[in-house]
Amino acid sequence: MGWLEGQVALVTGGTGGIGRAIVHRYVEEGARVAVMARDSVQLAQLQSELGDRVITISGDVSSAADNKAAVAAALEAFGKLDTFVGNAAVFDYFTRLDRIEPEDFEASFQKLFAINVQGYLLGARCSIDALRESRGSMIFTLSNSAFYAGGGGILYVTAKHALVGMIRQLAYELAPDIRVNGVAPGATNTAMKSLEGLSKRSVPLNQIPGFEHNAAEAVPLKSIAEPEDHAGHYVLLASRRNASQTTANIIHSDGGWEVRTHA
Ligand SMILES: NC(=O)c1ccc[n+]([C@@H]2O[C@H](COP(=O)([O-])OP(=O)(O)OC[C@H]3O[C@@H](n4cnc5c(N)ncnc54)[C@H](O)[C@@H]3O)[C@@H](O)[C@H]2O)c1
């Protein structure tokens, strides 16, 4: 018996590194999963790998209509929703505030926050009724950048910090019906993309020269994570049997940033 036997989840950004690992692991644990992401080729590939255990929805998390459609598709295909996983996000290629021209700032801010913050809130908003009915849970992908400086630029780090407050407030507003938690990965071997136009040098995260080595050296456990390394935390938090008393909590999966030293 898997830990999520009979459960239904909706995962945003489920075709990318960490989201894709969550989807595969949820299916392995017995869940059926609705996956929402932007890239229809990757969605089709996931569908062919996992067959009728998943449905795929092409959409943009910053759109209310697309979030509504994703929840409706999950309900239509599987009859209920037990867990909403907000995960889709973009990076800012470590861009500092003094490298963003004042006249470009508003557009960059709006675009990144529309995906990384508004996207999570809209997904949450659209799944509230279904999760109340199932007494389910929400889980959000945060980052070490939700707690510490230097793992991203000003927009990404500010947005991830905001999500700590979002999880606390949602856990408060939605109790006792819905548990709300997060997972905060550290540097992970994925091709996470940055917002277009922010930096001319921008490349996907795991193509940055030295990324793997520098990320490993920055933490006490001395290794960079693979996406699969985080997936078990999402299983635990979605499991009613194993996490029924856990809400407003964020599991750190970051190689020990909090106790990092220069030694
Ligand atoms: N890779 C890391 O080092 C790292 C570290 C900490 C936290 N995270 C977080 O993990 C999560 C997943 O990132 P990843 O590293 O797997 O990146 P990724 O780029 O591999 O995956 C991101 C996914 O989100 C989707 N997506 C992006 N914008 C979207 C939009 N507007 N609408 C719908 N889907 C959209 C992409 O298509 C992709 O499926 C993000 O929240 C990220 O901030 C990543």
Main attributes?
alpha/beta; Rossmann fold; seven-stranded parallel β-sheet; 8 helices; binds nicotinamide-adenine-dinucleotide
Classification by helices and strands: alpha/beta
Q: How many structural domains?
A: 1
As residue ranges, the low-confidence spans are: none
**Helical percentage:** 40-55%
Order of helices and strands: EHEHEHEHEHEHHHE
CATH topology: Rossmann fold
Report the major sheet. 7 strands, parallel
C-alpha Rg, in Å? 18 Å
In CATH terms, the superfamily is NAD(P)-binding Rossmann-like Domain
What's the overall geometry?
globular
CATH-derived architecture: 3-Layer(aba) Sandwich
Give the percentage of residues in beta strands: 5-15%
Task: List the total number of helices.
Answer: 8
Distance between the termini: 44 Å
Say which molecules are bound, naming each kind only once.
Answer: nicotinamide-adenine-dinucleotide
Please identify the top-level CATH class. Alpha Beta
Structure description:
The chain is of the alpha/beta class and 263 residues long. The chain has a single domain, classed as 3-Layer(aba) Sandwich (Rossmann fold). It has 8 helices and 7 strands, in the order βαβαβαβαβαβαααβ. The protein has helices at residues 17-28, 40-50, 64-78, 102-134, 154-174, 211-217, 228-238, 240-243; strands at residues 8-12, 32-37, 54-58, 83-86, 137-141, 179-185, 249-253. Helix 4 (102-134) packs parallel to helix 5 (154-174). The mean pLDDT is 96. Bound molecules: nicotinamide-adenine-dinucleotide. Residues 12-13, 15-19, 37-39, 60-62, 87-90, 115, 141, 143, 185, 187-188, 190-193, 205 line the site of nicotinamide-adenine-dinucleotide (NAD).
